[in-house]
């Protein structure tokens, strides 16, 4: 008798990674999404680049500088934010140029 054998192993779907890049001027914003996040999944957004680019992430609606579930607003373009969800949801990402600069945005999430 083999313990723990309850049929063939089921591999969960792999996380999906999407990459975006561009430039922002002072106070310019750029929105991304929706990213369809699976129940029980995590979405991680991170940026690298030049200047000072701030990152905002929100579940269930568009992110803004005053409405978000996670923000990362350090004084460089290297920012990171993660959100989890108990239900299937759409997640939105907003970048804001606190100073002019370039960015590379990487969004990794468990797709629906």
Describe it for me?
It contains no helices and eight strands. Helix content is 0%, strand content 54%. It has a four-stranded antiparallel sheet, with no helix packed on it. The protein has strands spanning 16-24, 29-37, 42-49, 53-59, 70-72, 79-84, 89-97, 101-109. The model has no long low-confidence stretch (mean pLDDT 92). The chain has 112 residues and is mostly beta strands.
Can I get a quick summary?
By secondary structure, this protein is mainly β. The chain contains no helices and eight strands.
Query: Would you count the extended β strands for me?
Result: 8
Q: Give the biggest beta sheet.
A: 4 strands, antiparallel
**Helix share of residues?**
under 10%
Strand composition percent: over 45%
Biggest sheet, spatial arrangement of strands: 1-8-3-6
Overall 3D form = elongated
- Can you give the mean pLDDT? 92
Regarding quaternary structure, what we see is single chain
- Classification by helices and strands: mainly beta
pLDDT < 50 stretches: none
N to C succession of SSEs: EEEEEEEE
């Amino acid at each position: 008798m083999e313990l723990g054998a309850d049929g063939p192993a089921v591999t969960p779907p792999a996380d999906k990674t999407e990459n975006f890049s561009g430039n922002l001027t002072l106070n310019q914003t750029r929105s991304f999404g929706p990213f369809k996040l699976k129940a029980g999944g995590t979405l991680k957004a991170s940026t690298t680049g030049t200047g000072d680019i701030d990152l905002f992430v929100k579940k269930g609606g568009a992110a803004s500088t005053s409405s978000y579930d996670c923000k990362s607003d350090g004084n460089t373009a290297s920012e990171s934010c993660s959100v989890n969800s108990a239900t299937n949801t759409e997640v939105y990402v907003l970048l804001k140029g606190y100073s002019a600069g370039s960015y590379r945005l990487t969004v990794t999430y468990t797709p629906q």
